[in-house]
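Milestone 3.1: sequence recovery, worked example.
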């Protein structure tokens, strides 16, 4: 009987019709109903005590919502009857119009923020949150059961990042100094093996890894065909190879300064080399240089070992 008495009040009916549609705060409800805060708060207290509404804290604001499915069976019947009796009520129609406008203002406020911040959003996001979270989110897409080979692992920074996500990582390099640095970098991970070896004679069994990564390595090799064939050999059927390296450029001074054998690679050149090494599904994409990057543009290539 108490719940029936609660629904006998016009203001409380109006509140419930609004809160059934949208979670709202007191200030928003005051604006829509055009009532003072004391009145709205008093009626919300009654609705809450009679279990017609639920609320949650968001910062300094309480947000209210009515969830019909969570009402008792008798309350659901009462609410169904109340809605039928008030259908077409002009006051409720006015409330819904003001609610729609209020929600539009919400969206406009969020949109206005991003429009104003668009030009500086990248810098703002970097300043507020750093730059690693994007890589972490993308890396989390890699299946946790994967075993991955980081070919030409260098100091092991990429190896260490991969180790946080996957089952096992093999970091392989032919430089004793790099091997020592990679071992130190990955010392905290029990799922990392740092191996010394040439990339055209990898110290891995046939079909032993699910994916292989070659980052800024191929430009230093006199020839790349042997490395690509070895990568294909150690991959399991369906395994994927990802290459990130320099796009073909004409900066010979840059190539000599870094003691690189190749002035980058053209898209057609990479496609031909990967297909020649036994890969399929080759995709090559030139990447635009970052704003503060001083080196040549990069190229990203991916390919799969046939099943």
């Amino acid at each position: 009987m108490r719940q029936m008495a609660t629904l006998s009040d016009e203001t409380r009916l109006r509140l419930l019709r609004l809160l059934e549609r949208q979670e709202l705060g007191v200030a928003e409800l005051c604006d829509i109903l055009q009532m003072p805060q004391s009145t709205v708060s008093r009626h919300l207290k009654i609705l809450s005590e009679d279990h017609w509404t639920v609320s949650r804290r968001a910062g300094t604001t309480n947000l209210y919502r009515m969830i019909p499915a969570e009402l008792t069976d008798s309350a659901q019947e009462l609410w169904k009857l109340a809605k039928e009796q008030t259908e077409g009520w002009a006051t409720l129609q006015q409330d819904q119009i003001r609610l729609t406008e209020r929600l539009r203002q919400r969206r406009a406020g969020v949109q206005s923020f991003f429009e104003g911040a668009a030009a500086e959003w990248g810098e703002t996001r970097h300043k507020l949150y750093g730059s690693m979270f994007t890589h972490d989110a993308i890396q989390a897409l890699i299946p946790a059961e994967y075993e991955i080979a980081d070919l030409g692992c260098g100091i092991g920074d990429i190896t260490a990042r991969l180790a946080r996500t996957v089952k096992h990582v093999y970091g392989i390099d032919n430089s004793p100094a790099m091997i020592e640095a990679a071992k130190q970098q990955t010392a905290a991970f029990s799922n990392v093996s740092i191996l010394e070896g040439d990339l055209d004679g990898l110290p891995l069994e046939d079909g032993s890894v699910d994916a292989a990564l070659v980052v800024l390595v191929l430009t230093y090799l006199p020839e790349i065909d042997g490395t690509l064939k070895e990568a294909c050999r150690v991959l399991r059927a369906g395994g994927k190879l990802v290459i990130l390296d320099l796009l073909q450029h004409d900066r010979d001074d840059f190539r000599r300064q870094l003691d690189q054998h190749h002035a980058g690679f053209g898209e057609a050149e990479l496609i031909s080399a990967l297909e020649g090494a036994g890969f399929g599904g080759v995709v090559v994409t030139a990447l635009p240089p970052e704003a503060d990057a001083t080196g040549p543009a990069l190229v990203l290539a991916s390919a799969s070992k046939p099943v």
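The mean pLDDT is 89. The chain has 13 helices and ten strands.
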